[in-house]
């Protein structure tokens, strides 16, 4: 009896064929049926009692280890068991294990998380009034090298505090936020400018004229007022505030009066003022 096993492995990744070729009958050749086991043991070191002498097929099912006389060999997962007899009476039984895919799944790597960069853009009132171009810098990393990136912002007339500019640059998402440099004499609320001026008690009681500065350099306004003005009174001047974005209009300039009282009065001045106020 001859046993052939071509290309077998314990954990095959391709097709493995186990072929048993049996010449029958053994008794007609003058060899006792059980001599095959002794011959196999002599030449191969193990017996073949696990083969059916009539078909060459393994006995005991596919899940029993060592049933083909090969210690530790397991037919689990094999299919087939097809037996073919050739013209010389030799039978070949073939068992095939389905091919396993060796391809390794390559999942798409997750998209790298972009770095969030926050940068302020500090502007003066004059820059926000007229508009300008300003550079913003931040540190970036490319090819393991640190770089300084510069982005030029086109500041529009009328932009307010909190205006955001979003910039996408490589692995960086940059958010630029407008801030304001405090002004020496003006305060801003949305599109309006506020200015506080001092007037004397005489001006507050007797009317007068004062000069009011504007956000435009070297351009002042003359403000005349009559009647009496109390401290904290506000006077609105339309069209002299900040520009309104994407329009030709401007907000208001709001003037607040702060009446200054004299530090001291003489006895005669107090008496005269008292007489006037009685009327």
TrEMBL record:
Name under which the protein is recorded: Chaperone DnaJ C-terminal domain-containing protein
GO terms of biological process kind: protein folding
Swiss-Prot/TrEMBL keywords: Chaperone
CDD domains: DnaJ_C (cd10747)
Xref: Pfam families: DnaJ_C
Domain Chaperone DnaJ C-terminal: 120-262
GO CC, one annotated term: cytosol
Gene Ontology MF annotations: protein-folding chaperone binding; unfolded protein binding
SUPFAM superfamilies: HSP40/DnaJ peptide-binding domain
Chaperone among keywords: yes
């Amino acid at each position: 009896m001859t046993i052939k096993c071509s290309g077998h492995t314990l954990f095959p990744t391709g097709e493995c064929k186990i072929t048993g070729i049996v010449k029958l009958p053994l008794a007609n050749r003058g060899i006792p049926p059980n001599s095959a086991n002794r011959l196999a043991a002599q030449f191969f070191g193990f017996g073949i009692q696990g083969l059916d002498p009539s078909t060459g097929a393994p006995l005991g099912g596919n899940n029993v280890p060592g049933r083909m006389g090969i210690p530790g060999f397991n037919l689990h997962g094999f299919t087939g068991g097809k037996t073919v007899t050739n013209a010389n009476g030799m039978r070949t039984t073939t068992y095939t294990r389905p091919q396993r895919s060796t391809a390794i799944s390559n999942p798409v790597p997750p998209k790298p998380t972009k770095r969030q960069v926050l940068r302020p853009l500090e502007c003066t009132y004059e820059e926000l009034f007229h508009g300008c171009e300003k550079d913003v810098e931040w540190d970036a990393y490319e090819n393991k090298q640190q770089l300084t990136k510069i982005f030029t912002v086109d500041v529009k007339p009328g932009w307010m505090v909190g205006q955001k500019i979003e910039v996408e640059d490589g692995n960086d998402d940059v958010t630029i936020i407008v801030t304001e440099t405090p002004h020496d004499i003006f305060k801003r609320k949305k599109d309006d400018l506020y200015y506080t001026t001092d007037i004397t008690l005489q001006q507050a009681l007797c009317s007068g004229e004062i000069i009011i500065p504007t956000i435009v350099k070297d351009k002042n306004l003359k403000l005349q007022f009559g009647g009496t003005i109390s401290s904290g009174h506000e006077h609105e001047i339309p069209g002299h505030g900040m520009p309104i974005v994407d329009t030709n209009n401007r907000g208001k300039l709001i003037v607040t009066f702060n009446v200054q009282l004299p530090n001291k009065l003489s006895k005669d001045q107090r008496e005269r003022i008292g007489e006037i106020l009685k009327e």
